[in-house]
């Protein structure tokens, strides 16, 4: 027990050093975490650029399969299951999906969920971790290289994921997060050489990173609003397809607890189809969905209709309806 406590303290002290370490770069202070993230993201982009020179049909199919699997790790596990508790899964299955999310290289479950809960708490304000009011570049990817934009301070780090920090598995994934993708890269190279590494790790990871980031940037700028959410969230059909249903972003901000985000039959939502299947076989329980009454209350068309009615003058006096 004492040995484990000593190891935990050592890891914490190391992390504090990584965050407190500073260097002046591109006009602002960067810490070790910022620089490390920049190196990894640039490295993955350079790896992806090798794709035309290592084209291989099997590698492409592998990349597509990993795109779906690791993508569901983000959308089904990180987002709808862990961040919003839209449904429940048996622990073995919950942990399996979370591990797929780790292989997406979008952060540990603790860090991803913490950032996303922050986003919903402060949507489109200066306190939003990837607020669009700070510019398109920042909301898309710039926030990733600015630790302070996500947590503000060491003390503010992961202060909204107490439910997950109680589970040793998520603590383990948090402190070992990068090593799992490194192991996957070694496995891919061992099995299929550079084509598998370039497509299965480089192309697949970069493509899904930008698709996910587009939910923060593009889906808060371009698309259609159908719900009265009081923010800039939009539904975007393209990213509804590419992001396994996450592009129906205005739907999500209207009913963030909902396990389903594509409400209409034509709003493709792959993540919901998987959840619905798991529910049908008895693995997904307590699946949350908005009622028709809740939808009617939240519909933007209702608000617009009321605004059109506006103020009716009666006997020279204004009367609100």
Quick description:
By secondary structure, this protein is mainly alpha-helical.
Describe this structure in words.
- A hairpin with a 2-residue loop joins strand 1 (22-25) and strand 2 (28-31).
- The protein contains 14 helices and four strands.
- The chain has one domain.
- The longest helix has 49 residues, at 168-216.
- It is mainly alpha-helical.
- Helix 2 crosses helix 9, helix 3 (57-83) packs across helix 4 (91-102) and helix 3 packs across helix 5.
Tell how many strands the DSSP assignment holds.
4
Helix count equals 14
Please report the distance between the alpha carbons of the first and last residues. Answer: 66 Å
Largest sheet: 2 strands, antiparallel
SSE topology string: HEEHHHHHHHHHHHHHEE
Low-confidence stretches: 1-5, 311-321
Largest beta sheet: what is the strand line-up? 1-2
Number of domains: 1
In round numbers, the mean pLDDT is 88
Strand content: under 5%
Rough outline: globular
Q: Roughly how much helix do the residues carry, as a percent range?
A: 55-70%
Q: Radius of gyration from the CA trace? A: 22 Å
List keywords for this structure.
mainly alpha, two-stranded antiparallel ribbon, 14 helices, 4 strands, disordered C terminus, transmembrane helix, oxidoreductase, lipid metabolism, Fatty acid desaturase domain-containing protein, FA_desaturase_dom
């Amino acid at each position: 027990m004492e040995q484990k406590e000593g190891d935990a303290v050592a890891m914490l002290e190391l992390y504090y050093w990584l965050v407190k370490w500073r260097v002046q770069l591109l006009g602002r202070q960067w810490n070790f975490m910022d620089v490390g993230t920049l190196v990894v993201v640039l490295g993955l982009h350079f790896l992806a650029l090798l794709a035309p020179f290592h084209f291989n049909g099997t590698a492409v199919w592998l990349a597509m399969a990993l795109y779906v699997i690791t993508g569901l790790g983000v959308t089904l596990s990180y987002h709808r299951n862990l961040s919003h508790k839209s449904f429940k899964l048996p622990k073995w299955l919950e942990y399996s999906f979370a591990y797929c999310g780790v292989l997406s290289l979008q952060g540990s479950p603790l860090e991803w969920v913490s950032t996303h809960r922050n986003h919903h708490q402060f949507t489109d304000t200066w306190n939003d971790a990837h607020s669009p009011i700070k510019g398109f570049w920042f909301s898309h990817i710039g926030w990733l290289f600015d630790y302070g934009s996500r947590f503000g301070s060491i003390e503010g780090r992961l202060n909204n994921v107490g439910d997950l920090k109680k589970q040793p598995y998520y603590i383990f994934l948090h402190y070992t997060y990068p090593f799992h993708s490194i192991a996957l890269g070694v496995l891919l190279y061992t099995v299929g050489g550079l084509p598998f590494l370039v497509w299965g790790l480089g192309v697949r990871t970069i493509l899904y990173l930008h698709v996910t980031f587009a939910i923060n940037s593009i889906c808060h700028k371009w698309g259609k609003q159908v719900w009265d959410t009081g923010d800039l969230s939009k539904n975007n059909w393209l990213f509804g397809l590419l992001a396994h249903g996450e592009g129906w972003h205005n739907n999500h901000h209207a009913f963030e607890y909902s396990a389903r985000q594509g409400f209409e039959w034509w709003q493709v939502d792959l993540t919901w189809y998987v959840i619905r299947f798991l529910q049908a076989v008895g693995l997904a329980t307590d699946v949350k969905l908005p009622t028709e009454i809740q939808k009617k209350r939240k519909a933007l068309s209702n608000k617009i209709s009321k605004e059109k009615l506006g103020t009716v003058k009666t006997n020279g006096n204004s009367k609100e309806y």
